[in-house]
Amino acid sequence: DKDTDSLYASQNLQGASVYGKADASDIQQGQPMAVKTSLSTTDVTKTDASAVPHDVVYLFPLDGSEIPDDATLNDLAKKVAASGAYVSVVAYTDESGNAEYNQRLSERRAKRVGEYLIAHGVPSDHVRTKGMGQTHAYPSAAQDRRAEIHVSV
Fold first, then answer.
1. Which of 16, 67, 115, 152 has the fewest CB atoms below 10 angstroms from its CB?
2. Bridge partners for 151 per DSSP
3. φ, ψ of residue 28 in degrees (nearest 5)
4. Distance (Å, rounded) from C-alpha 45 to C-alpha 38?
5. Coil, helix or strand at residue 3
6. Kind and range of the H or E run holding 106
7. Domain ranges of the chain
8. Is 22 within 8 Å of 9 (Cβ atoms)?
9. Phi/psi at 7 (5° precision)
10. How many CB atoms lie within 10 A of CB 98?
11. Domain 2-152 is in which class?
12. Of 86, 119, 97, whose CA–CA distance to 106 is shortest?
């Protein structure tokens, strides 16, 4: 189904998450984006496909690493904990600032996302984090300031 491979954006509006197809204009700093991926029946072992968490991309503001309470990340943590899945958090910065500082910032972002998920029920031995430093792989600097949360069952 084509929709299962679509990119979905999540914006927290007065405590509610709203999902819809995303393009570059939908992306806002400090907002997670749920990435819906295809699942084969072999990917689902402990639970049905609707309960298996999807990968999420979290965008940070310039020079930021703090994560306020977030419904999408809370939901992700709940589903990861229930499914027994593992999480890999890979974080980046944009190219502003020097490379050494950006490496430390990306590591801090990855660590903060990991800590957030652990604080919301994900077992610590199911979370791995890695800071990758600066990137210019995405269409805008705002998109480069990201943490990618990859989920594997």
1. 16
2. 87
3. -125, 145
4. 15
5. helix
6. helix 99-119
7. 2-152
8. yes
9. -90, 130
10. 9
11. alpha beta
12. 97
Q: Which one, of 66, 81, 1, lies nearest residue 29 by Cα?
A: 66
| Neighbour-count burial for 104-117, b at 16+ CB within 10 Å, e otherwise | ebbbbbbbbbbebb
Tokens of 60: 């940070």
| Residue 29 pLDDT | 54
H or E element at residue 118: helix 99-119
Q: What is the pLDDT of residue 16?
A: 24
The C-alpha angle with vertex 124 and arms to 119 and 130, in degrees rounded to 5, equals 100
Q: In the chain, where do the E strands start and end?
A: 8-13, 16-21, 32-35, 55-59, 86-93, 127-134, 146-152
Among residues 118, 127, 116, which one has the least CA distance to residue 30?
A: 116
pLDDT digits (tens, 9 = 90+) for 125-144: 999 999 999 999 999 999 99
CA distance 133 to 141: 13
Structure tokens belonging to residue 71? 């419904």
pLDDT band with cut points at 50, 70 and 90 for residue 153: confident
Residue 42 amino acid letter: T
